[in-house]
Amino acid sequence: MSDTLRLLLALLELGPRLKDLLGDRWPPYADELQALAGRADQGEDPDRLRQSLDLLVVRLLAEPPAMELVQRVMADTAAPVAIGETVTRRGRVSPPVVPDTVRPATDEATGIVTIPVFYGTDRARGDDTPARYFIGERGNLSFGVAEVSVPTRGRDIGELTGPSWWRLEFSPNPEKHVILKSVGALDRDAFVTRLKDSLAAADLHDVLIFVHGYNVTFEDASRRAAQLAVDLKFAGRTLLYSWASAADTKKYTVDESTIDWSRDHFEAFLQLALGEVGAGKVHVIAHSMGNRAVINTLERVTSWQLPSGAAKLGQIIFAAPDIDRDRFVQLAAKFKGCAACVTLYASSRDVALLASKFVHGYPRAGEAGEALTVVDGIDTIDASLVDTSLVGLHHSYFGEKRSILNDMFNLIAQQLGPDQRFDLQAAGDALRKYWRYRA
């Protein structure tokens, strides 16, 4: 773990003490720490993140009540302050072309895979460019297909590559970067028909639904969904549910309100996937705050009236869920047995979860350590030794070259239980058994 992340985590943990010391002067610091946590969770360039954190620390050191505590934290984390200048710019290629295919396609010469991502979203419409086709405001539930190209050569598992100015990359390159090429809207009936036809032609008649977390644009959600499909070698069809995240680190509470508002829309989308497209199984991967829509929907799954022959829920994956731990335990008892397998990945080093605990004051379901959530009917995995951000190897705050994506592949593609996955070992006792990564 880098000094930058270590210092940020330490300051988040000390939030209550700093609040007591600074009183009315604390709220601006709290807001900035929360924003920095969001930027770290999104894999921001480490140099730029460190510059912002250094500036915050300098201001805290100028506050006499907090100075000694902050100095002690810096000594404990071996994190000297060094202020520099780094500017990051990111370009996009956004050709407004509506995809005319609903099947993955591979260019054998370049190794580029083009993935159709069948989306449902309650975002408001923006303009006609892919990057701004949907924005961070609420709209009506709508459907369509996003076309994303993913390079398979020179990209590590989990890496959501994009142009970087410091690599002298000023525009996306399909052979290096994951690119949202086009977005096409469909009415509900046309969406069901196209997905049904595409699924019938697939090697595997299952669908995988990805639900993103806080501070995510539609563009990046689409790119992440396609990258997951490629890295998990998923042979079915890939779906995305993109709720109207404001995609702004300063609007955490706005996103919290929106994910609750979005629950009915996600429920309608999941019911469509189960009952109308001819799927065999429906798998769901939810990350961070996106878990709230999923778990609040599963609470009601036993009351649904699905048609005869509807798909079954296969793998349900809660990746670092940002939801109150006690609330998660309450809801888990209600949907027990609704899916073939339910897995919870927890971590003691997930910056977004620590930021959420910092705001709410109560443990999150995705935390490890003393607050680790172990519930009957759910395989809990302490993934503190790997990266739970879904960002994978380019998330440079972690030194280990492992990601939960490796385990998800064995879980979804190979259908292996935790006792069959080499990288995991049993922990706890008979009453509180869980799994953790081997050191």
From TrEMBL:
<dbReference type="Pfam" id="PF05990">
    <property type="entry name" value="DUF900"/>
</dbReference>
<dbReference type="GO" id="GO:0016787">
    <property type="term" value="F:hydrolase activity"/>
</dbReference>
<keyword id="KW-0378">Hydrolase</keyword>
<dbReference type="InterPro" id="IPR010297">
    <property type="entry name" value="DUF900_hydrolase"/>
</dbReference>
<dbReference type="InterPro" id="IPR029058">
    <property type="entry name" value="AB_hydrolase_fold"/>
</dbReference>
<protein>
    <submittedName>
        <fullName>Alpha/beta hydrolase</fullName>
    </submittedName>
</protein>
